[in-house]
Amino acid sequence: MTLTTIQLFAVHRGAQLTDAQLQQSLQTLPLEDQQRILRYRRWEDRQSGLLAAKLARKMLSEELSVPASDLQIRRTELGRPYLHGFADWQGDFNVSHSGDWVFGGITTQGVLGVDVEGLREIEMEVSKHCYCPEERDELYSLGGAEQNAFFYVLWTMKEAYIKAIGTGLSTPLTSFGFDIPSLKEGKILLKDDQGVPQPQWHFQRYDVDDAYRFAICSDQENLPGSITLLTRDEVLN
Predict the structure, then answer these.
(1) Using an 8 Å Cβ cutoff, are 84 and 74 in contact?
(2) CA separation for the pair 214, 152 (Å, rounded)
(3) Which pTM does this prediction carry?
(4) Which of 56, 58, 194, 198 is the most buried (most CB within 10 A)?
(5) Residue 151 to residue 129: CA distance in whole angstroms
(6) 196-237 pLDDT per residue, tens
(7) Do 213 and 156 contact (CB within 8 A), yes or no?
């Protein structure tokens, strides 16, 4: 039996690219990707979108030993990217970006979802639409920065899960949750809307930047212990 290999990568967005640098990098992508990236109004979002697209192709190219230009990445009706034309490949990939960071993962077997979120002030009222009662009780028991940080711990893991299953926000975030006693013991256990444990899903959180939260979800067990940091040039070139 072949051992599943999962790799995680992150790249810092960095300073603004010149128009020439942006155009040069965009031209290496399919027209559909170029148009999607250029729809962003802010340069920060355009640059992060560019890096995310390039990172996805870099991961796949290196894993499959295929030139990035030969890869066809398409999207499901719900917007999830997938690799087209490699029917024998049993793996998966996923990317996320927020603020200064772009985060990506690839697995040789099964599925995965990744999420990165920058910490920012949030209205606790939002939690009613995101978290189950057990999660909200724990959230409301905290205060200040600790409460805000825990909000994003939960958020990134939930986002990673709905990206792994491919449904995105069409799956209500209140329809599943995490066992709080287990979380306090350093274990992550997903439960469905009836409170039934779902141990087939595995999660890991990572500390790369104190101002951000990174998380992965996969149906594979051997999740990486760390994220490989790439330079921007390594991703763009």
Answers:
(1) yes
(2) 9
(3) 0.95
(4) 56
(5) 12
(6) 999 999 999 999 999 999 999 999 999 999 999 999 999 999
(7) yes
* Nearest in space to 157 (alpha carbons), one of 220, 110, 103, 204: 204
122 assigned to some structural domain: yes
Tell me what percent of the residues of the chain surpass a pLDDT of 70.
99
Burial of 237 (0-12, 13-18, 19+ CB in 10 A): exposed
Question: For 41-93, what is each residue's pLDDT tens digit?
Answer: 999 999 999 999 999 999 999 999 999 999 999 999 998 999 999 989 999 99
Rounded-to-integer distance, Cα 71 and Cα 126, Å: 39
CA distances from 230 to 21, 53, 102 (A): 18, 14, 10
Q: Is residue 1 part of a domain?
A: no
Tell me the CATH number at 92: 3.90.470.20
Q: First CA to last CA across the chain, in angstroms?
A: 35
Overall average pLDDT of the 170-187 stretch? 95
Which residue, 161, 26, 190, 174, is CA-closest to 94? 161
E strands in the chain: 6-12, 72-75, 81-84, 92-98, 101-107, 112-118, 176-178, 190-192, 202-206, 212-218, 228-230
Task: Identify whether the C-beta of residue 131 lies closer than 8 Å to the C-beta of residue 173.
Answer: yes
Residue 4 banded pLDDT, cuts 50, 70, 90: confident
Residue 102's domain spans which residues?
A: 6-236
What CA–CA distances, in Å, run from 236 to 26, 96, 114, 186, 231?
9, 16, 21, 36, 9
Q: How many domains is the chain partitioned into structurally?
A: 1
